[in-house]
Amino acid sequence: MRKKVKYVCENCGYESIGYYGKCPECSSWNRMKEVAVDDKKGTKGTVRQEKRTIRRLKDIVSTNSDRIITNINEFNRVMGGGIVRDSVTILTAKPGAGKSTLLLQVANDLAKMDYRVLYASGEESESQIKNRADRIIDTIHPNVWVVSDNSMDNVLEFIEEIDPDLIIIDSIQTFILEDFPNSRAGSPTQTMECANQLVKIAKNPNRPRAVILIGQMTKEDEIAGLRALEHLVDTVLIIEGESGEELRSLLTSKNRYGSTGEMGFFYLTDKGMVSIDNPSEYFMTARDKDNLLPGSAITVLKEGTRPIILEIESLVSNSFTPYPSRISECLKREQLNTLVSIIEQRVGISFYDKNVVVKTTGGIKLKEQASNLAVVMSIISSVKNIPLANDIVFIADVGLTGELKRVPSLEARIKELDRMGFRKVYVAPNSGVDIKTNNLEIIQLRTLREVIDNVFNHK
To answer: What gap in Å lies between CA 140 and CA 144, rounded to an integer?
Structure first.
């Protein structure tokens, strides 16, 4: 009888019943190694799991409200109100973004509330973790246990030993299970099997536990490994932020227990991640009426369920080259070129000999079309060298025709402006706005030209 074999890539651990010269997973050549298959581990020898009880959907008790709430407000917001007790979350970011720092803070914060936390690291030694903790935490609570070991088998034993409420794995791509000796750490097989074991631990109905995995990020800004890892977990968190800058954005691209797209903001300091509980104040420059400068306009973004007031700055300068610059880190170059073209064609201001630079306070990205009117008005303010009042706001998209377009969630944005004490907001016509405000005047205009005339002729 012919011996059963399979082929395993030595580079990434990809398995196949047939030989490939080029690995379908990692594209490396001539790395597929023939490995004998143990018949006892085949499908015929698999042990069937214990049959679960079938129940009506309406009879099942929801656990969504059973959350572990930290004292870090922005973290709670992004998680949907706290950590669900039987959930699995993966947190990813570029190196140095603050993943381990944030989770150490979460671990110590929950330990103070009598939760038991296990922090398992396959990358750093225990002394390295302790050095970071000494730097960012004033008093380390005894309810936090730390182990430096890349063996998932050992980690599972430690879980049984100390019975933690929260398990932090740093990072999932560094751990291995002894049942798969032919797969190296970080291979798709090891990563998925280790994650599967942790999911079983978290979802145990008799002893639910929260699990947070740290995931390495590739050069393409994606979680390293198979896409199936993102499907396996309940929540995917991403930390964004430019190297050398303090601001960090924590956002969710998937959340089974909350809003997808929710975003929280932090300072990354020597003392760890500091929650920015009122981002609207952070993303605006405080100026009195006597110190207004041209090129600044205010809009309201919607990040998840929360409106954020944001200042947009523009600088228009003379160009002495055949190709003027169009520079912006907060929106795509094509979008900036489109808005400049609209100004040229619909307003009659020429930019063929002018450089245009656009940025936002704090470096936040402009992902919504609702900010387009504010971008346009900041550019026009700069080119005219006339400052805009710091108590007026622009919330609308601008079409190629120069007409203003409606945007979603306008009511929530306007309520935030009224709460913050702004005087005027410019929006598109027929926006369906019927909101009682205390001091905010809602001005509905049809075209960009009308907005310009109204703003600069009624100062």
So the answer is: 8
Q: Whole-prediction pTM value?
A: 0.79
Distance CA 124, CA 263 (A): 28
Q: What CATH number did the domain enclosing 129 receive? A: 3.40.50.300
Amino acid occupying residue 47? V
> What's residue 37's pLDDT?
67
Range of the domain at 359: 282-457
For the stretch 7-18, pLDDT in tens is 877 776 777 777
Does residue 54 sit within a domain?
no
pLDDT in tens, 308-339: 999 999 999 999 998 999 999 899 999 999 99
CATH number, residue 288: 3.30.230.10
Q: DSSP assignment, residue 329? A: S
Which residues, in sequence order, are CB contacts of 17 under 8 Å at separation 6+?
A: 6, 7
Q: What is the DSSP string of 92-142?
A: EESTTSSHHHHHHHHHHHHHTTT--EEEEESSS-HHHHHHHHHHH-SS--T
pLDDT digits (tens, 9 = 90+) for 196-239: 999 999 999 899 999 999 998 877 777 766 678 899 999 999 99
What does the pLDDT read at residue 46?
43
Q: Is residue 317 part of a domain?
A: yes
| DSSP type of residue 270 | T
The number of residues in the chain equals 459
273 and 396 together in one domain: no
- Please check whether residue 58 lies inside any domain of the structure: no
